[in-house]
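thread from #wetlab-drylab

HS: before we spend reagent money on co-crystallization trials with guanosine-5'-diphosphate, can we at least see a predicted complex? here's what I'd submit
DV: go for it
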Amino acid sequence: MQIRQPIVAVLGHVDSGKTSLLDRIRGTGVQGREAGGITQHIGASFLPSETIKETCGILYKKLEQAEHKVPGILVIDTPGHEVFTNLRSRGGSAADIAILVVDVNRGFQPQTNESLKILQSRKVPFVVALNKCDQISGWRKSETKFISQAIKEQDASIQTDLDQKIYDVVGTLSILGYQSEAFYRVKDFRSEIAIVPISARSGVGIPELLSVLVGLTQQYLQKRLNQEEKEPRGIVLEVNDEVGLGQTANIILIDGTIKKENSIVVAKRDSVIVTKPKAILLPKPLDEMRDPRDKFKPVSQVDAAAGLKIASPDLEGVLPGSTLYVATNDAEIEKYTKLIEAEMKSVFIDTETNGIILKCDTIGSLEAIVEMLRRSQVPIAKADIGPVNRRDIMEAKAIKENDRHLGIVLAFNVKILPDAKDESEDSHIKIFEDKVIYSLIDNYNAWVEEDTANEEDAMFAELTPIAKFTFLKGMIFRNNNPAVFGVRVDVGTLKHKIPFMNMSGRKVGTIHQLQLDKKTVSSAKAGDEVACSVNDVTIGRQIFEEEIFYTFPPSPDAKKLLTKYMHKLSPEEQEVLNDIVRIQREKEPIYGY
Ligand code: GDP
């Protein structure tokens, strides 16, 4: 069985040490130059098994015994989920395995979570590199590169401290649905995620990290990496116009072989193109690079997994994240064209239904965000690539008429065209912009929540308030036309222009005006003593000193209060409302229904 090397991606929060770790892994390769070192690819570096063997030392013994050995690992050079999202393939990932870097002193951070969500949705196995161990306070520097040995050399309190930090990660991962353990305690690598403490700075732990990676790959990814009968395909990472080369695409070849005479089938936004590469390029080894402008060497063929560049004038407009197939005859061209067309159909969304509008920079981010929105049950009307244009805003505007929370635009890492901006301001269409997937969705969800609460507040404020109040003894300022007398608000909020009733449920009248300390006010709260005026009643006939009154919500208001807004009333107000309803239902059984 012919097995290719796994494609390894590095993810994690900003500053957790992803770049340093990649540098360290590549540096390992550079030092191991005599043993084969590393080969530089486009967007990736290849560490052959000889180099890994040299780094891992005795740990490699067990890996060598595997039935199917991988020839090394291909590490993607750019870390972070931005690139990872474009390393997509058929809704899954082109990366076979990932390293999730976590800062040992900070634990999980927002982008750690975001990375994890993306790994989860693409079903990519991963190892946690618990980085910056050298920064644990009191950590003693040692000569060994093996973390298991370095831990033994620490004071007992430092060992406990590290263990605690590992368990913090185990705890967090467990809440997120993963079982995990320090790699030396893992019993079953299939069900438990291995946590490897490392220091990218000193290099300690790198042997263990690499051997866990290779071990996992050899044990569990054989089928995926087997090259027999695999369609030759890759993924487009970026497309550029380069001086001296013209249109080029950086590609990670996932499976199979690409030859110069082959046809390449790949997607643009609205079409599938078939082109023959003008050149296939790889970086020149440093010692062959005489002129820094002359960085690439043309080759006639490349085997997977590899990073390479192809040049062809037809590549302009090819989508980053698009799958690329290598075809050797017309029948294959036709087959792959259909495959790509079907794939494009499943990625872009254009419905006539209610939902949000999403615009992204690449297919990868589009796919990842669509997946996350679906998981949080946000309907999508349109998901596409490119800047936000006026038509997007017009569509959102139409949607907003049916659902104010869906009539919005989410813009991920794309421009907003000036006429779209003007239109959004004129028609109050919200555009959420972000460069972090996680916060884009979070900000939108937070706004929906806040807006729902505001909407609820506004509706609630329209209803007759609930209050209980007492006519104060001796506080008669005028007997009638209008009657003016003093009251104390016992429970709730009293407002002007609302009806009120007495204890037997008879409507007494409407409060015309309220005065607090001789100033007209629109409302008074529990504890306030205010003067109120009421038309068409006479004190001593319809109302009496020391009498207790309730506000009198009309039946529809009572219904809304009972069914929707009970949680906005205090326990005392709830009690008063229940009294009001009980009294009214004795007279009118359908009151409040
Ligand atoms: P990235 O944003 O995840 O790529 O993080 P970087 O690799 O740029 O690292 C962020 C900072 O942490 C830099 O100042 C690094 O020097 C530092 N750093 C990375 N790894 C380690 C480590 O293992 N130990 C220590 N002490 N510092 C580290």
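DV: The two ends are 74 Å apart (CA to CA).
HS: ok that's useful, forwarding to the group
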